[in-house]
């Protein structure tokens, strides 16, 4: 779910907004720490990714959760270090040797969309969040969300939100530094931006009308 900052950048002049953006990005970079910075922004085509440093491995997808289990078991499951693969500079852990073998044969099939970041966040060009237990497989692709609220917000209009997320991922997020991109789009919001409260209200209305379970 995307939270609305109290500061409103549109009240500033163009020059001031640029200065604020620069300072915010630098602050984000300084607060992120080297470990988190490297984990989410490996030097590979997968950058940025929802990854973290785990047990000496610098960039582990989804904190070590098994991306294959979503497809084979219909649930999230923690992987084990003994069953791991490195793909494009990112480590993937699996619950079994069989899952590792499936991934090694077709890694692209099991990669979470948008680097494993919250798909609803990417619809706002914000690479943020991504909880292993909040997910959906849609048309054979794995989408991760930053919690049930973000997932339900995305499900309000799946085709439109996938189109938005695909667009922003391609045009802005892919290849960017996750911390800089996040800071930028939390200040300079996309035209269709909705706060967490607005999304929650729409989800509640849709559930009351039986449009969402």
Structure description:
The chain is an alpha+beta fold and 213 residues long. The chain has a domain at 34-109. The protein is 44% helix and 16% strand. The protein contains 10 helices and 6 strands; from the N terminus they run H-H-E-E-H-E-E-H-H-H-E-E-H-H-H-H. The chain has helices spanning 14-32, 34-40, 69-72, 97-105, 107-110, 119-122, 148-155, 158-173, 178-187, 196-208, and strands spanning 51-54, 57-61, 80-87, 90-94, 131-138, 141-145. A two-stranded antiparallel sheet has the order 1-2. Strand 5 and strand 6 (141-145) form a beta hairpin. The longest helix is centred in the first third of the chain and has 19 residues, at 14-32. The protein is globular. The two termini are 18 Å apart. 38% of the residues are buried. The model is unreliable at 1-12 (pLDDT under 50).
């Amino acid at each position: 779910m995307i939270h609305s900052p109290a500061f409103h950048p549109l009240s500033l002049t163009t020059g001031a907004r640029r200065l604020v953006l620069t300072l915010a990005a630098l602050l984000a970079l300084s607060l992120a720490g080297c470990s988190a910075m490297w984990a989410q922004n490996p030097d590979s085509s997968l950058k940025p990714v929802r990854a973290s440093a785990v047990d000496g491995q610098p960039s582990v997808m989804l904190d070590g959760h098994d991306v294959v289990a979503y497809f084979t078991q219909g649930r999230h499951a923690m992987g084990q270090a003994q069953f791991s693969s490195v793909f494009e500079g990112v480590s993937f852990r699996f619950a079994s040797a069989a899952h590792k073998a499936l991934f090694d044969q077709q890694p692209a099939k099991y990669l979470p969309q948008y680097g494993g970041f919250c798909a609803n966040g990417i619809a706002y060009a914000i690479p943020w969040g991504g909880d292993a237990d909040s997910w959906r497989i849609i048309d054979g692709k794995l989408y991760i969300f930053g919690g049930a609220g973000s997932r339900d917000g995305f499900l309000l209009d799946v085709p439109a939100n996938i189109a938005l997320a695909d667009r922003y991922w391609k045009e802005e997020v892919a290849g960017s530094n996750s911390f800089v991109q996040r800071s930028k789009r939390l200040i300079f919001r996309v035209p269709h931006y909705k706060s967490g409260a607005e999304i929650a209200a729409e989800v509640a209305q849709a559930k009351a009308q039986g449009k969402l379970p």
